[in-house]
Amino acid sequence: MDAIALLTIFVLSIFVGIEVVAKVSAVLHTPLMSGANAIHGVVLVGAILVTGKADGGLELGLGLTAIVLATINMVGGFVVTDRMLEMFKPKKNQEVSK
Amino acid sequence: MPTWVRLAELAAAVLFILALKGLSSPKSARRGNLLGALGATVATVVAFYYGQKFFGGPIKNVQPILAAIAVGSLIGFIAARRVQMTQMPQMVALFNGVGGGAAAVVSVIEFLTAANSETTAMLTATVFTVVVGSVSFSGSILTFMKLQELMTSRPVVIVAGRYITSLAGIATIAVAISLVVNPSNAVLFGLLFLSLIMGILLVLPVGGADVPIVISLLNAFTGLSVAASGYVLGNVLLIVAGTLVGASGTLLTRLMAQAMGRPLTNTMFGAFTAKAITNSGTGEDRPVKSASPDDVSIMLAYARKVIIVPGYGLAVAQAQNTIRELVEILSAKGIQVDYAIHPVAGRMPGHMNVLLAEANVPYQQLKEMDEINPEFAETDVVLVVGANDVVNPAARNDPSAPIYGMPILNVDQAQQIVFLKRSMRPGFAGIENEVLFDPKTSLLFGDAKETLTKVVSALKAL
């Protein structure tokens, strides 16, 4: 894909990223940070792609390191966020005040 | 890349947007997080099916890759299940750090294998990821160490720190530019080293209550470096996901800084200009009024309106359940009880809500600062449990205080104030609190859980 198309996607994503969290309540700052943190664990895809091309030696070692690190980020991030949000679950469908 | 793979990646990108959207509202937050996890799973699975054209043959090293994923999943899962809720901020910092590290390593590999065939724009993105990913990595690790109290959590100010940091920053940029102009592996590793130092220099002078804001900022950094690595690999999904996190993380950082009542630049560079605080230790010499658990139980029993101000110390003492029991007894006596939650109570914005939710404290009793501040003047007893900086009037009155300008809970307006404290030690920000010496204030010394239990049994006996 050409550079301008990628740039377009980049710029539009900035607006989407700002828009979706614009009205977040302070109560959720911690889980939101943690959840967003898990999402950038998707760098795992990049790590898999470079390791899938690696011809052994240094590249392979570095690639596998990146995979381990990215997976910790992704899996740990989602699990820990879920643990936090589990507690937020209202007991009897209570109305959550802002 | 087969069409179905590209469509699956589109689906994953949409899931990430829905995840962030969901996380922004309490009702849909948990589902949002699960959608994000689903998106990540889809993205990971289809990465194996990019096909011949991308990998130049069948994908190599499948077994080691799967093994590495298994190892990472296991570590991440166990760490996330075991961590205590009080330690959440440092866990998030650590997860963020390894993500930044992964992005940097991916770009290092790209550089080593394809530097000569890359366009200038791609090289720039590669170098950007190496720098920002490494800064995020070392900065997050240092943040983790500060919060885990493996080192001091106070701002560390080195002599001429501001100049050293500026010089290191200029050097990093200069080396990065030279690397784009003239790719060389040796210079790359030099840049990696410089960037790691840079991350440490940036976080060292940040201390106390500002640390969580830095975690959020580094989170945004990692997002951006992931987006840049997506550009290098020509991968749309990484660009979308990384940019989403970068943009939302930047906004979230600003929102957090606003809750602290200070611009972001103060957070990052405040310690460079702050005067040294020398009045530590003077606290012991001034008279304070201390009270026994029995005194406090009588005070509470005859109140009409009570406000509880919980802080990080409450969670450290594991006293959330005891405080809930106390509130239940008081409510049964017909006393109106509310919790006043400061936006940065705990060690991250919203942290206290998580800690109290863990102890089954109902939502309706938690009131946010703006809502409850006008009520202090008509409150008989305020019970401050393990909080300090968020009730310190120095934030209103003393322009030289590092927390000056931060909105606080106006406990000093209440009729009577009871502080549960372990000692006279100042709070996270290290500043003396005048309220402690107020004639209206009583101090109840001891472990919060023990003393609260005594108050509860005294109340039951009344």
3D structure, described in words:
The complex is a heterodimer of chains A (98) and B (462). With 98 residues, chain A is mostly helical. Chain A has one domain. Chain A has helices at residues 3-21, 29-39, 43-53, 57-88. The longest helix of chain A is centred in the last third of the chain and has 32 residues, at 57-88. Chain B has 462 residues and is α/β, with parallel strands linked by helices. Chain B has two domains: 83-273, no CATH class; 282-461, TPP-binding domain (Rossmann fold, 3-Layer(aba) Sandwich). Chain B has helices spanning 3-23, 29-46, 52-55, 62-82, 88-114, 120-147, 161-181, 185-203, 211-233, 236-259, 264-273, 293-301, 312-316, 320-332, 351-358, 369-372, 394-397, 448-461; strands at residues 305-310, 336-341, 366-368, 381-385, 416-421, 441-445. Chain B is elongated, with a radius of gyration of 25 Å.
Computed structural class of chain A: mainly alpha
Oligomer: heterodimer
Sheet with the most strands: spatial strand order of chain B? 3-2-1-4-5-6
Please report the two chains with the greatest interface, counting residues with C-beta closer than 8 angstroms to the partner's C-beta: A-B, 85 and 114 residues
Q: How many strands, which pairing sense, and closed or not: the largest β-sheet of chain A?
A: none
Query: What is the number of E strands of chain A?
Result: 0
Derived structural class of chain B:
alpha/beta
| Shape descriptor of chain B | elongated
Strand content of chain B: 5-15%
N-end to C-end Cα span of chain A: 44 Å
Mean pLDDT of chain A: 86
Largest sheet of chain B: 6 strands, parallel
> Radius of gyration of chain B, Cα only, in angstroms?
25 Å
* Tally of DSSP β-strands of chain B: 6
Instruction: Enumerate the spans of chain A where pLDDT stays under 50 for 5 or more consecutive residues.
Output: 91-98
